[in-house]
Design a protein that fits this description.
Elements (H helix, E strand, L loop, with lengths): L11 E3 L10 E7 L21 E5 L5 E13 L5 H5 L5 E13 L4 E12 L1
Parallel strand pairs: 2-5
Antiparallel strand pairs: 1-2, 3-4, 4-6, 5-6
Length: about 120
């Protein structure tokens, strides 16, 4: 996850211990929904819907195209890690951010938004 700084909330982080976007398996990209100063890169992530297009530009400049298959909100207390991070026999993408209710006492969201997508 990028740092929770002014610049960091506008960046995404790729989980580099898993496959890269476009490789077989579940590629994971995470980003902030917001900070106390600004909307984050994934502020509107929960508005995606099945059938929406997602493009990922790789470090080499190539673009990989995905189609959203589902969008889910999971309580952080019951996050299905094996489902989200688990292996897939195809080129999968998971986009993850915080969401749901915000706990003012802790300064954290109580849920995560996960977008599931499949390479075209």
């Amino acid at each position: 996850m990028p740092p929770l700084t002014d610049a960091g909330v506008r960046e995404v982080g790729w989980y580099d211990l898993g496959p890269a976007p476009g490789q077989v398996g579940s590629a994971i990209i995470a980003g902030h929904v917001d900070s106390d100063q600004a909307a984050g890169v994934f502020y509107d992530l929960g508005r995606l819907a099945p059938g929406n297009a997602v493009e990922v530009t790789l470090a080499n400049g190539d673009t990989v195209h995905f189609t959203v298959t589902s969008v889910h909100e999971y309580s952080k207390a019951h996050f299905p890690a094996s489902e989200v991070y688990g292996p897939e026999p195809y080129q999968a993408l998971r986009l993850i951010t915080c969401g749901g209710a915000f706990d003012e006492a802790t300064g954290h969201y109580l849920s995560n938004i996960v977008v599931y997508a499949r390479m075209n």
